[in-house]
Task: inverse folding
């Protein structure tokens, strides 16, 4: 007597996709059929194995290849079948920014925002808020320039988009940006500083009190506020405070003592002692911090900071001690460029 | 006096050889190539790191080439790199990540200085597009295969 | 207005149909990793092949999106594009796969009992699994990847593979058995670790 084997039902059996009747039939068959029991085991094993495979991120080169392969022509062909109206906002965008206005309604919606948790995407206009409550996250696609990931419990306002600028306003929470753009095209306003993108990847966090911090992961950024500037390279971070703007940057792998001392110095707590600690704890990489301090310490302390940096790396030709102590901009810049090779 | 002259002659003859052993390739983060907008800003955004020659008469005449050497799922891979001239007059070049994500990678940079004649390599272990400074080896002669393979092994 | 269950909002789809580049970019960002990963594993961890397939799929998508009327889920349609691109490419390739390395698998079988985690964290295992998948006949390969890597339901798979649910089940069954045979040493090692 021949019983039909149940091979073809086994995958669905494993996945619970059989009806009750079918399931009973398979169960009954498995009791007496070693061959199918073996097959079941094989299916469970290989299903497990394939489930271990990890998702691989598509590299950025793929997008570039798509663009090069004539994305424009294909898009143009799609567009040719519809009328396209420039929206009456008076803004014309440069080809590099590449934003095309929608004709469905008259409000321009230059921002594309994806809700990462549920996969949906929508278009949003300048002035609208992205608010990630209750554990949701979002991704803002900044035209052709890159992406900004919005962490939970964050409020970000989408700003104006123009030929020379994309702006975001971070009110509270954390965003992580990966931007490929000419310098100063992408700017994040926080209560205590503007983060001017000089091409890079970074994370900006703003607390409820308006104080913030910027952590650079790639490239470098400049924090600017009322004439004060902090340069923050990859691997470093910088705090911002509503009253005083950008603090003094330091590398994330600096000693805890140094970091505490920099924070103390920036808020004006025991500055002299803080400076002692910084000078003592500094490694060659921390010349980033020391260099910024040159223009922030009192004249009487400046020589001490100068000496410490010079121990690691003497200033190059053209940047004499006197000019540095006089805070000559050119001399400072030359020294910084030499020091950067050690950061 | 002749002793002194002899000593001076020896030193002068030795000087190129001694200077030659000082020639090396130094690496730094992209910001080391300057923050001014004169230097092709588009390119700088994507650079993993920059490299420059030290102790060579004419920095601009140094030839630097690079390959990315990797171990991916147990298999060795090699990607030839096209270095970006950031400041050709000073021999400063940028390295873009032209190797895939995943696996372990070391960038091998080879440079030769025409005067004084010398060659040197720098081995730069990478973590994605971030260079691992503590494990970087700035050598004053060309790197050997063993040195490279040992470094790769250490990473994986 | 977000779509439910991971689907793109109609707004984005409409904008794509109108040739809106930003919307296309958003769509690309939402699906690129999935497309890339399927192609990656389809071609035995070949990043170049994966890049080419991904590029091909999205370019085709852009051309054909006007024709997508929304009778099936967008993702199902996309998966069909990916599978077709992979199967077509597989047909065109002469030398499919780097030869088996029996030594690697033997050392695993011979090594002392490994836990599940230890097993799957080893490079040799990952390589062997990738090789084994890539040696499956293309249609079986597609079925296995869509079901266990992408977690598609049987009816979605039937749509994506353009066949009946019965055919899907049969391809899965055959694919599994082939995979299990090729990965026998790993199975043995896992069993002895229990």
Result:
């Amino acid at each position: 007597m021949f019983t039909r084997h149940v091979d073809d039902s086994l995958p669905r059996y494993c996945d619970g996709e059989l009806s009750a009747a079918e399931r009973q039939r398979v169960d009954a068959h498995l009791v007496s059929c070693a061959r199918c029991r073996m097959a079941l085991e094989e299916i469970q094993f290989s299903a497990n194995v394939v489930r271990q495979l990890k998702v691989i991120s598509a590299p950025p080169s793929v997008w570039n290849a798509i663009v090069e392969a004539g994305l424009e022509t294909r898009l143009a062909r799609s567009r040719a079948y519809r009328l396209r109206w420039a929206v009456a906002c008076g803004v014309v965008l440069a080809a590099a920014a590449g934003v095309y206005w929608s004709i469905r309604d008259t409000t321009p919606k230059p921002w594309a925002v994806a809700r990462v948790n549920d996969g949906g995407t929508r278009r949003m206009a300048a002035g609208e808020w992205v608010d990630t409550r209750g554990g949701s996250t979002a991704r803002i696609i900044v035209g052709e320039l890159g992406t900004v990931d919005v962490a939970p419990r964050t409020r970000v306002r989408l700003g104006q988009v123009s030929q020379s600028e994309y702006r975001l306003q971070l009110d509270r929470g954390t965003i992580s940006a990966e931007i490929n753009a000419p310098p100063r095209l992408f700017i994040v306003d926080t209560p205590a500083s503007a983060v001017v993108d000089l091409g890079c990847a970074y994370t900006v966090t703003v607390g409820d009190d308006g104080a913030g911090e910027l952590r650079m992961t790639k490239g470098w950024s400049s924090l600017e506020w009322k004439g004060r500037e902090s340069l923050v390279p990859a691997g470093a971070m910088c705090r911002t405070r509503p009253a005083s703007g950008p603090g003094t940057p330091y590398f994330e792998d600096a000693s805890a003592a140094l970091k505490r001392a920099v924070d103390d110095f920036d808020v004006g707590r025991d500055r002299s002692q803080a400076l002692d600690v910084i000078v003592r704890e500094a490694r060659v990489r921390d010349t980033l911090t020391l260099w910024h301090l040159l223009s922030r310490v009192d004249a009487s302390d400046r020589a001490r900071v100068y000496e410490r940096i010079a121990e690691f790396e003497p200033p190059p030709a053209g940047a004499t001690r006197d000019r540095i102590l006089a805070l000559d901009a050119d001399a400072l810049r030359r020294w910084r460029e030499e020091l950067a090779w050690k950061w | 006096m002749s002793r002194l002259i002899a000593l001076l002659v020896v030193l002068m003859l030795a000087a190129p050889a001694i200077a030659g052993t000082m020639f090396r390739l130094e690496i730094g983060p992209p910001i080391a190539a300057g923050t001014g907008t004169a230097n092709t800003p588009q390119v700088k955004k994507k650079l993993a790191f920059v490299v420059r020659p030290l102790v060579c008469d004419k920095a601009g005449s140094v030839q630097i080439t690079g390959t990315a050497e990797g171990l991916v799922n147990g298999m060795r891979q090699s990607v030839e790199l096209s270095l970006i001239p950031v400041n050709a007059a000073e021999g400063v070049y940028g390295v873009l990540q032209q190797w895939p994500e995943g696996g372990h990678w070391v960038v091998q940079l080879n440079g030769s200085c025409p005067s004084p004649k010398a060659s040197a390599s720098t081995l730069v272990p990478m973590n994605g597009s971030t260079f691992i400074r503590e494990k970087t080896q700035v050598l004053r002669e060309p790197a050997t295969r063993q040195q490279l393979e040992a470094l790769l092994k250490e990473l994986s | 207005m977000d779509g439910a269950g991971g689907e793109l909002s109609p707004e984005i789809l409409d904008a794509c149909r109108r040739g809106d580049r930003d919307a296309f970019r958003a769509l690309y960002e939402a699906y690129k990793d999935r497309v890339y990963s399927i192609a990656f594993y389809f071609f035995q961890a070949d990043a170049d092949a994966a890049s080419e397939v991904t590029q091909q799929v999205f370019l085709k998508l852009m051309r054909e999106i006007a024709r997508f009327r929304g009778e099936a889920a967008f993702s199902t349609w996309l998966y069909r594009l990916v599978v077709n691109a992979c199967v077509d490419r597989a047909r065109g390739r002469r030398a499919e796969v780097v030869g088996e390395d029996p030594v690697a698998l033997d050392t695993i079988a011979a090594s002392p009992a490994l836990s599940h985690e230890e097993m799957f964290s080893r490079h040799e295992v990952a390589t062997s699994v990738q090789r084994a998948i890539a040696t499956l006949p293309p249609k079986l390969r597609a079925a296995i990847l869509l079901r266990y890597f992408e977690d598609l339901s049987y009816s979605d798979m039937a749509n994506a593979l353009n066949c009946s649910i019965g055919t899907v089940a049969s391809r899965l069954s055959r694919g599994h058995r082939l995979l299990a045979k090729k990965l026998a040493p790993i199975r043995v090692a896992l069993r002895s670790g229990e």
Remarks:
- The radius of gyration of chain B is 18 Å.
- Chain B touches chain A at residues 26-32, 34-35, 37, 41-42, 44-47, 52, 100-102, 129-130 (CB under 8 Å).
- Chain B has one domain: 2-155.
- Chain B is about 25% helix and 40% strand.
